[in-house]
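Throughout this chapter, every protein is written as a compact record of paired, labelled lines. An example of such a record is reproduced below:
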Amino acid sequence: MSLVRRLAHISYLLFHRLPPLTWPEIETVVRRAYLGVHPRVYGYIHYTTLLLGALASIPLALLAARAGVPPILVVVTGALLGLSSSIIYPYLRANSMASAIESRLVAAVGLMALLALAGRNVDEIFYKVARVEGKDKPLSRVLLRYVRDVKLMGMDYEAAMRDVVATSPSHRLGVLIASIHEAIETAGNPAGYLLSEFRSMVTEKRARLARSLASIGHLSEAFIILVLLGPAIAVLTAVLGGTMGLGFAGLSPQALMALMVLGVIPFATIGMLIFLDAVLSEAETV
């Protein structure tokens, strides 16, 4: 049993006499996050995080009381922070699952197109793709939900499609599944649509990769100019000015060199590395 399910179970046992703290938007996000917990049961976790946040803030409230700060203000702030953690978590998990799904979507669509050309049904296509993806993968969970709705729950294809689209963490995957259903209704086979979508995705990823590579090239040029050449030119200018009795921005050559070596170059390098990491992270998802 996952930590969230255990926490939901304990929270329900403690606060089941109270109404769950829930609303339609958070229930939708909980379903899309695939936490393995009923959305209304997840509403009881908010009571637990509220209580834990208040209890954890008591030592800080005692210290704040000595400084003249009302302790109730600190306790309320801690409780609200605890509550916000259980509210934000489903959003973060759903976004993480959406990114994982979309990073694997091109290969999955290509395999779906091949299976559709072989004459497989939609539920068979989704089951095969889920097996290739592996157990407990975000894409597999969404596709196996469709197979479960059709095979075990007895839903028709349209009802299963609506259920999966409503609970898919990735909007793009939801659109893809809805479009597959429309292609079946109009053409009888989604192979043509899947092939067209596969070509479109490959073209899009190629363009994104080209942009990422171009960004890396521009970043390397900026690194050379700002981090290497810029400080070197400033120090050289200060040295030449010092030989003629002139300062550079009111600094001596020694002070300017120390400022560049200990301040400008390290911080500029860190900034460039952060930008480079962001560009490389985007390239890894292509």
Remarks:
- The mean pLDDT is 85.
- The chain has three domains: 3-97, 104-189, 207-284.
